[in-house]
Write a structure and sequence with these properties.
With 313 residues, the chain is an alpha/beta fold. 38% of the residues lie in helices and 15% in strands. The strands form two sheets. It has a seven-stranded parallel β-sheet with strand order 8-7-6-9-10-11-12, with helices on both faces. Strands 2-1-3-4-5 form a five-stranded parallel β-sheet, with helices on one face. The radius of gyration is 22 Å and the shape is elongated.
């Protein structure tokens, strides 16, 4: 007998077809009557396919008494109640290894764009101002220090790239990582003061909300750059707007925002901000690998094999 799976999101057509060949699939994502699907199938559901934007909360879990496993097609899982999963003994997989390289590449891209003042330099050319004089001298990207907030898989991938540019690495994490490059800091403000430039790779959630605030930005200093490829909620955007406007902080490169897809124009309109539309993993290669790993996690669990990537709850 095949396991019953509840799909809160869809996979690419060829993988969705494979999923539906392998399991008994209940498609909540395109159901005309979602309540009817849950009423009819909730008691038999053993697995969930979801993404970081769909809620898997107490209300849903109460309706799925046989649930054993959740597979998430993104690295972030802010809307999945992991504490509730843990209480129920439900395991979970996500796809962090499939996207770490592209997200790390984007982090370095945003840092370099900010350091070499790309938005304003671009405007200098397109506006015709270049004819009135040369662009001011900037600072080198190679060398110097870099702070990384969050030394998970993505943070480690950022560190590897930064070392290739001759940067000295410091990082913030809850515990020191024996295999991580560079110096461990258990205080974000101290890391910001030491490094100046800071790349945020932290997950969202209550524990990290506004962890990057005015104190951290002030510690970075007027030449400092803040890059965020983690979650928008980690950075206090009001403090960021103030710091970038009054010169407390030099520049920012942002892939994520508090309000998506309509971020605050007071932030995105600043000349010292480089914006990216939460698209760090938005490559054909990464998205294909993420979808495949979503399915692979599910099949591995129900086949009794080790998961390609399990989230520690």
């Amino acid at each position: 007998m095949t396991a019953d799976i509840l799909c809160l999101t869809s996979l690419p057509p060829h993988l969705q077809a494979e999923l539906e060949d392998r399991f008994t699939v209940h498609r909540l994502f395109d159901a005309d009557d979602r309540e009817a699907v849950l009423d009819d199938a909730g008691g038999s559901i053993r697995g969930i396919v979801t993404d970081g934007g769909k809620a898997v909360d107490e209300a849903l879990l109460e309706r799925l008494p046989k649930l054993e496993f959740v597979t998430c097609s993104s690295a972030g899982y802010d809307r999945i109640d992991t504490a509730a999963l843990k209480r129920r003994g439900i395991r979970m997989g996500n796809v962090s290894p499939a996207l770490e390289d592209d997200v790390a590449d984007t982090a370095i891209l945003l840092l370099m764009a900010a350091r070499r003042d790309l938005p304003r330099a671009h405007a200098h050319v397109t506006s015709g101002d270049w004819a009135d004089g040369s662009y001011p001298l900037l600072h080198s990207f190679t060398g110097g220090r870099l702070g990384i907030a969050g030394m998970g898989r993505i943070g480690a991938a950022v560190a590897r790239r930064a070392e290739g540019f001759g940067k000295e690495i410091g990082y913030f994490s809850r515990t020191e990582k024996p295999d991580a490059p560079g110096r461990h800091f258990d205080d974000l403000t101290e890391l910001a003061k030491w490094a100046g430039d800071l790349i945020v790779c932290l997950p969202g959630g209550d524990a990290t909300r506004h962890m990057i605030g005015a104190e951290v930005m002030a510690a970075q200093g007027p030449e400092g750059i803040l890059v965020n490829v983690g979650r928008g909620s980690v950075v206090d955007e009001a403090a960021l707007i103030a710091a970038l406007t009054d010169g407390t902080l030099g520049a920012a490169g942002l892939d994520v925002f508090h309000d998506e897809p309509t971020p605050d124009a007071a932030l995105t309109g600043l000349p010292n901000v480089t914006c990216y539309p939460h698209h760090a993993s938005g490559t054909v290669e990464a998205r294909g690998a993420m979808a495949q790993m979503t399915l692979d996690n599910l099949t591995a669990y129900f086949d009794g094999r080790p998961l390609p990537y399990e989230v520690s709850l």
